[in-house]
Design a protein that fits this description.
Elements (H helix, E strand, L loop, with lengths): L2 H9 L10 H9 L5 H10 L4 H12 L5 H9 L6 H13 L4 H10 L3 H12 L6 H13 L1 H11 L5 H10 L13 H12 L6 H26 L37
Length: about 260
């Protein structure tokens, strides 16, 4: 099949919205390397659902030349968008091959949002690199929740000490009327324990109080809900990977039910 035919086939994705026909997906994957360049073009230049499909197909094709374009598109995409999550999943699938492009982009990143996705991808890549570790420690000053999750995933026990200092610096907001109040303390506790650290009595008490304020509000809301008629059955939207899990555990979705829920 000529390159022009592969490009025309890929361009047909733009005609479709959320669901890509299985036959079209199979036909594109069957083109193998011929489909990579046109898929990258769609990934970088199109809006809507087409870039999402392109990212998924490039991942299935295991095309390493797609890594740098994926990183560039990630930098242009807002956290919380479906494309953003799709790109993070894709980059994680490429593993260690992501490191050069992600580190190069990280050196040029100017905002917390730009660094957020890159550091998530780097923490999941399976590579121990001092540049990654130093960048994750810097994120601890900028976004403690994201840094706690990333350091836990990265898996370097040296992070226990800075995570413990961060835990000591955060106070419990016992008056917060928010089901996800004190998220920072909960994520820091989780990261410390995941890395093999232990909390002393005062730290355990702080973590318990952080969860207690949330549980009280959750119980209050549940009492109100119990008085209401049941709503019609509907499918709830899947949370973003870095949003609190739908189950109310207090842990981010990717650390909780992500692996159990259907994609």
């Amino acid at each position: 099949m000529a390159d022009g035919d592969a490009r025309a086939l890929v361009r047909r994705m733009v005609e479709h919205s959320e669901r890509l026909p299985a036959s079209l997906r199979s036909d594109i994957l069957a083109r193998g390397p011929e489909a990579v360049v046109p898929l990258v073009e769609v990934l970088l230049d199109e809006a809507g659902h087409a870039p999402i499909h392109a990212a998924e197909l490039l991942t299935q094709l295991k095309a390493p030349e797609a890594i740098a374009p994926m990183v560039r598109r990630l930098m242009r995409t807002e956290p919380g968008e479906v494309l953003y999550d799709t790109l993070l999943y894709a980059l994680e699938e490429f593993g260690p091959a992501v490191v050069p492009s992600a580190l190069e982009a990280l050196a040029q990143a100017r905002t917390a949002d730009e660094r957020f996705g890159l550091l998530s991808a780097l923490s999941h890549c399976g590579v121990k690199d001092e540049r990654i570790y130093v960048a994750l420690l810097a994120q601890l000053q900028e976004d403690s929740v994201a840094a706690a999750m990333n350091l836990s995933t990265y898996g370097d026990a040296r992070a226990i000490e800075p995570l413990t200092r961060a835990l000591a610096a955060h106070e419990v907001d016992e008056e917060a009327e928010d089901l996800f109040a004190n998220q920072t303390i909960i994520e820091l506790q989780h990261a410390i324990e995941q890395l093999g650290g232990t909390l002393d009595a005062a730290q355990r008490d702080k973590a318990a109080r952080a969860r207690g304020s949330r549980h009280r509000l959750s119980a209050l809301f549940q009492n109100v809900l119990d008085t209401l008629p049941p709503p019609p059955a509907q499918r709830l939207p899947r949370p973003g990977r870095n949003e609190p899990c739908w189950c109310g555990s207090g842990v981010k979705y990717k650390k909780c039910h992500l692996g159990e829920d259907p994609r």
